[in-house]
Fold these 3 entries.
Entry 1:
Amino acid sequence: MQGKIIERHPTEEFDYQRLAETCFISQPTVFLRRHVFEEVGPLDTSLHYCLDYEYWMRIGKRFKIGYIPEVLAATRFHGAAKTVSNRKVAQEEVLMIVRRRYSSVPLRTIYFYSYMNLLEKLMPHVQGVYPM
């Protein structure tokens, strides 16, 4: 779309409990202090899809997170992006890390996972609609 903004990433004021429902932090806009990194540690490289999301959970549990409403970065989503091309597996990782960090998974997160499963199963069978 040649630099045209199609849609804004849904960001909002930080709320630790709300973070269990959705990742509303846009990774390329994050700035953190060195002492935060030193206390929380590095990214969990055993994760494949949600390294940043899990990191925000660890940071948010210990530190106050600020919010700037202005657009600070842009992201390009495309069919080959790993979180787009492997949505079901990515959502399974989301469920795992939310359960690990919060002890339970909010219904909204479970509903989205169920939706992704149904979409994957039904899309190839819908006439006139091509698999994503």
Note: The two ends are 19 Å apart (CA to CA).
Entry 2:
Amino acid sequence: MIIQFFTQIFAGMVFTMILVPISIRIANRYGLVDEPFSAPHKTHKNTVPKAGGIAIVAAVFFITLVSGRLTTPEVLTILLAATIIFIFGLWDDAKGLSAGWKLTGQALATAVLLWQGIQIRMFVSSPLLNLTVTCFWIIGITNAFNLVDSMDSLAVGLAAIASAFFLFVTIDSNEMDLAFLSALLLGSCIGMFFFNASPARTFLGDSGAQFLGFMLATIAMAYTPQGFIQTSSWFVPILLLSVPILDTALVIVSRLRQGSPIYKAGQDHLYHRLVQLGLSPVQSVTLMHVAALLSGCLAFVALPLPPVWANMIFGTVVLCGLFVIFWLESFGKRNESV
């Protein structure tokens, strides 16, 4: 069954690669560019257009329209909500939005999903808790991908890895609309990788990073494993998106410790910490990609196990993540005191 989705993967790759040069011209014309050293975490030496989001979104919508999937209620709802994320992200790329306006756009997009009944349904006896967790998950992962986009090819590579895993599991659960979207994202991310690899010819921008994060968060939320009990499957989306989650948790802990605003940019991301430990930029990005692959594989190693063992594996991963945060923060304190 997976063979039918290679068409979408191929189309996503080709159309994204065709659209990137056009998107770069659009970005340059309308001032959607990232100036070097305009923020502490921006260390690139030349002006780079923020055209990645434009190309990916255009490719996804065009292929969806041509394939006839845009009339499918689930696909239409997800892409409609993702369009709101893209518009606010593009606005941010052009003018720079406050954290409040960004959250407003993310809340509106989440409301569209809830309006059409796409939400978490883990807690049968508490609809309000389901609603709260849904909002926290969607907004959290959307921002996590925006935060982790701190180095060339990092976020787009993590999105490609997550999309590949979601493609396999949604096919296995016979959720063809979600598999279609996963295949499109995978192809588009592969096509974008060529232009976003170091030294990047274009950045994803907030529009691209948030769009990818929102799409993956929604697919993860809508995905329902077939044949597996919820107590052994609830953590699968968390493990598939564990690296952006870890990066966000590290940033939050670091900035709370320093008394800095959480939304303030800085060089305290996981990528920057790895470079500070002595890894090269390429090694740091590769290590984070490998960690995402290992975590994804571990999610499906645990899935068929009895609930006790499955949750023990998940708990071990969480403890490892907490140890990494504690260790990196301790290393950072030692550097500050030197």
Note: Residues 2-337 form one domain.
Entry 3:
Amino acid sequence: MKAALWYARNDVRVENIPDPKPGSDDVALKVDWCGICGADLGEYLYGPLIIPVDKPHPPYPFII
């Protein structure tokens, strides 16, 4: 699947990543299209603002 990955300020890349494997209580959805929100744009232009870069989790690059 394709995902927008945040690497650093002004560095967001759309890349192919492995499809997640849903668990027994999960549902997999097929997304036809999507967009970004203002918080994502803020992370791109001025970040990291909300993305916790001082913690070991989540792994980086971060899927926005």
Note: The first helix runs from residue 38 to 46.
